[in-house]
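_Backbone structure tokens_
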Amino acid sequence: MMAMFLASNTSVLLPPSPGWREPAGLMKNPTAYLKMRVLGAIDLAPGRTERDRIRHVAERSFVDEYGHAHVFTWRTIETWLVRYRKHGVTVMHNKPRSDKGALRNAFSEEALALVVRSADGLLRRTRNLCLACLLEAVRDQTKCVDLKQVNRVLLQPHWRNDADFLPTALPS
């Protein structure tokens, strides 16, 4: 149900102002029906150009099938209109994200411990090791950096400590 406000010193219920917005949770995924109603309102809105009509519609509040009021930005409405013109009604339906539930490039606990141990407390070396390990993971086409990638990076000669390259002092 749409929230109504009591005007001061009167008993008249007023609708919310155009700038009023619902909490973010209610506006996450508007239904295809609501999107089509918003796009239909563009044709009936006053204004000389399409941009003026879209901006006018963006100031309005729309009530969905569940009674929740929604106000959409002009940019959102314009995106819906472009997608509708290009692909038709089928893009108005909400689809789950293709990467939903997929792992992102992350380090396993063992790999992260090895990177920290190998960096000798130097922040720049830690960052560079992490970036090199991520590149190795991309080469292997894996989503998670494991010990295999870290070891492959550490075996490269330029990751060895500077002390490894110093000649050892001969005992006198």
